[in-house]
Amino acid sequence: MSNHPDLTRNELIKLIAVATQPLNLQGVDLNSLNLEGLNLTGANLRGANLNEANLREADLTSADLTGADLSEADLCDADLTKANLTNANIYGAHFDCANLTDTDLTGVDLSEADLELDRVFGDPKSRLLQVTRHSRT
What we know:
- The protein is low in regular secondary structure.
- The protein has a single domain (1-137), classed as Pectate Lyase C-like (3 Solenoid), CATH 2.160.20.
- The chain has helices at residues 9-18, 117-120.
């Protein structure tokens, strides 16, 4: 568990400013926070609640978002290069123009996320990612 209970944007910015290593935000409730443009490179966000969070243009390179709740989050233009989203909930999340290069999406249901795969992943013929798409019934 993280030693950072529910944070405000200003508190998170202060933590980032003084951090000498990636932040440990495991299990933290960041629900609906405006995290636009923040540098969260390498952050431990395992199991974090990012429901409806604004992560537009955030740098989440190599971040661990395993089991995180990203439902309805705005990840437009975010950099998720080499991020781990294993078993994350991305229901209704928006990924327009996000960089998902080498992102681990194991166990993620992409059927209800706002993804334009040709824009998010680049050339679909050279996709490096295996994604799970569940058919709608």
